[in-house]
Write a structure and sequence with these properties.
five-stranded antiparallel sheet, 19 helices, disordered N terminus, alpha+beta, single chain, disordered C terminus
Length: 651
């Protein structure tokens, strides 16, 4: 690009038509000049603004030679192989000028739109206009013009922010611009006098590959561009970007020309940027949140692995970088997509807005979504979406709320129990105390003791005993210490016994019994099973109106014996049926003042029935009575009825 420095004191005056080269930079198709040396502007007279306009080449070059220039331009831009051609051009005054143009590639491109650098030599100066007498310049004038032109070229080269250089085919420098001293610190004469200067001052880590690459490219006569380090005079490493053109004849390299540009700052900035990007990528990939960044037009600019895993997104779908495709894929997994979609549209319509939503997925997971705008300065350029799996937290919260509800319910049940227990325990104590006081008074006064007072006192004692037994049974059940006997029991005989006892104490109540069609033998605890039946019958009597009929039915249902106790009482609300067999529960429509009990009977009944391998349930409608059912496994033969030596153990 620049001639070697001339050690002669004066140039040859005979080379007026071959002055130092004029330079331009350009690119693209059709060709367009991006930079033109002042000497070239002055040589042809066209203003600099004209050179930079698109289409100026077609105005500058003679029409008959324009096609050859365009063909050569495209070939050099594609292949990087330099070319030299001669052509006719027109000066600003319209006079023809014969030029020699050498085209070299700065940045080749397969489509022919790469950057080119051109050196121009004027082979024949423009002729003066007609009517103007041509006067041959004197030797002094020619020397002055050559000196002035050379000085301008040197100033131009020295003004370039890079080292302009030229070597022979053996990589010995024949020209180096003054910028070399500023960039690397070595005086120019060292570059020119030391045949191995470049190789010696390459960075040790780059010496082998850089020299091999450059030699191979030169041998193949290929323009090339690469980055490497040289060691400066002060010992620091300087990154250089070297743009090299190979001048050849008949496929043999003759010269190398190029520009070394200091890219140390750019390399450090690039390394800092790469480190920052690496840190950001590591941060993105290590976070527990799934993150995706979208531009305003829904193009994916960043995404981490957690996001892909969270939504089970295939690799091929991510490669498309289409945010709308991803959105539809995610939307298909959501249970509450119809509620979330309007919120998403609202956020997209308001770029400055932030938002938090909870997405409910069809697989039972809960995803918390947070969105905020991505800004470049003060401009919103996209949106950042983060997704966090909060399933565990949501379930823990739900469990905490459930436990809180249960704790509150337990407190309520406790308070109800204390209220009921105090009332139920006090109820028999008051008349018992009264009867005992009457008995004591009559005994102290020597009066006979009426039997009715003794019977009534014993009735209250029995009532207290029942309440205490229920509490003891409940305690044993909770502790797992309620043991059951294991022996053959005739269910029909047991039912007869229980009904006979109840008829004796409730002669005015109607009790109907429907016996089974066949004897039903079960294995279990006679006393505890009787306790179940007594409890169900007493409840039926207690909650039935005076004169109401209580019906007991025992039948076989496959391998099970089915016992049913029906009444025509107040019934049980539907929302309370599932709670009837819990501790201390009493139906809300059963007032304490009208119906006694601690709410433990059905709880104990359920435990006894289930320990015998059966189940218990209720059918009821408010105002139309209730029917309690329970089942027990039936023994099929006598061998199976042989009682084991051990009792039934708790669950």
């Amino acid at each position: 690009m620049a001639p070697p420095q001339n050690s002669e004191e004066h140039p040859e005056p005979a080379r007026v038509a071959d002055p130092s080269p004029l330079i331009w930079l350009g690119g693209g198709l059709p060709p367009r000049f991006r930079w033109v040396s002042p000497s070239l502007v002055q040589a042809l007279g066209h203003p600099l603004e004209a050179w930079r306009t698109r289409g100026f080449v077609s105005q500058l070059v003679h029409p008959e030679e324009l096609g050859g220039l365009l063909e050569a331009w495209g070939a050099v831009a594609r292949t990087g192989e330099p070319r030299t051609l001669e052509l006719r051009a027109l000066s600003a005054e319209g006079r023809p000028v014969r030029l020699a143009v050498e085209l070299s590639a700065v940045e080749p491109s397969p489509d022919g739109t790469g950057e080119l650098i051109g050196t121009v030599r004027v082979l024949s100066p423009p002729h003066p206009p007609e009517g103007v007498e041509h006067t041959a310049p004197s030797i002094d004038e020619m020397l002055q013009e050559i000196t002035r032109t050379q000085r301008m070229h040197e100033e131009l080269i020295d003004a370039i922010d890079g080292i302009v250089w030229e070597t022979d085919a053996n990589f010995r420098f024949t020209f180096v611009s003054k910028q070399a001293e500023r960039i690397l610190g070595y005086p120019i004469h060292q570059w020119l006098e030391d045949p191995g200067f470049w190789l010696k001052h390459l960075h040790p880590e780059d010496r082998d590959w850089a020299s091999a690459y450059c030699m191979k490219s030169a041998k193949e006569c290929m323009a090339h561009e690469f980055e490497y380090r040289m060691v400066a005079a002060n010992g620091t490493s300087v990154w250089l970007r070297d743009i090299v053109t190979v001048v050849s004849e008949n496929g043999v390299p003759r010269q190398l020309r190029g520009i070394m540009v200091d890219v140390t700052a750019q390399r450090r900035a690039r390394e800092d940027l790469e480190q920052t990007v690496s840190l950001l990528r590591a941060t993105l990939d290590s976070t527990a949140d799934g993150i995706i960044v979208l531009t305003q037009d829904w193009r994916v600019t960043a995404v981490n692995g957690r996001f892909q895993k969270l939504w089970s997104i295939p690799d091929a779908m991510l490669e498309g970088r289409d945010g709308r495709v991803l959105s539809e894929y995610m939307r298909a997994q959501m249970e509450n997509a119809e509620q979330v979609h309007p919120r998403t549209q609202q956020l997209l319509a308001s770029p400055e807005q932030e938002g938090v939503d909870v997405l409910e997925l069809r697989d039972g997971r809960f995803i918390e979504r947070y969105s905020r705008p991505q800004r470049l300065g003060d401009t919103v350029v996209g949106r950042v979406w983060t997704y966090r799996d909060v399933t565990v937290e949501r379930r823990a919260q739900a469990e905490s709320e459930r436990l809180l509800r249960e704790a509150r319910e337990a407190i309520r049940v406790r308070d109800d129990f204390l209220s009921i227990a105090s009332h139920e325990l006090k109820t028999p104590l008051t008349p018992l105390k009264l009867h005992l006081q009457v008995l004591k008074h009559r005994m102290d006064s020597g009066q006979p003791v009426p039997a009715q007072h003794v019977d009534k006192a014993l009735t209250q004692v029995a009532r207290l005993s029942g309440l205490i037994n229920d509490l003891l049974d409940t305690s044993r059940i909770q502790a797992g210490r309620l043991e059951l006997r294991n022996e053959p029991v005739s269910l029909g005989a047991l039912t007869h016994e229980v009904l006979a006892d109840l008829r004796a104490v409730s002669p005015h109540r109607s009790l109907e019994y429907e016996e089974p069609a066949e004897p039903l033998l079960i294995q279990g605890d006679h006393g505890r099973l009787a306790q179940v039946l007594v409890n169900l019958l007493e409840n039926a009597l207690k909650y039935s109106p005076t004169g109401g009929t209580i019906r007991v039915r025992v039948e076989r249902d496959g391998a099970q014996a089915l016992v049913s106790v029906s009444d025509s009482g107040i019934g049980i609300p539907a929302d309370q049926k599932a709670l009837l067999f819990e501790r201390f529960f009493r139906a809300r429509n059963a007032p304490i003042s009208g119906f006694g009990g601690l709410g433990l009977g059905l709880y104990i009944c359920r435990d006894i029935v289930e320990r015998h391998g059966g189940r218990i349930w209720v059918e009821s409608e408010v105002g139309h009575g209730s029917t309690f059912h329970f089942t027990l496994p039936v023994l099929e033969d006598e061998a199976a009825a042989t009682p084991p030596e051990t009792a039934l153990h708790p669950r």
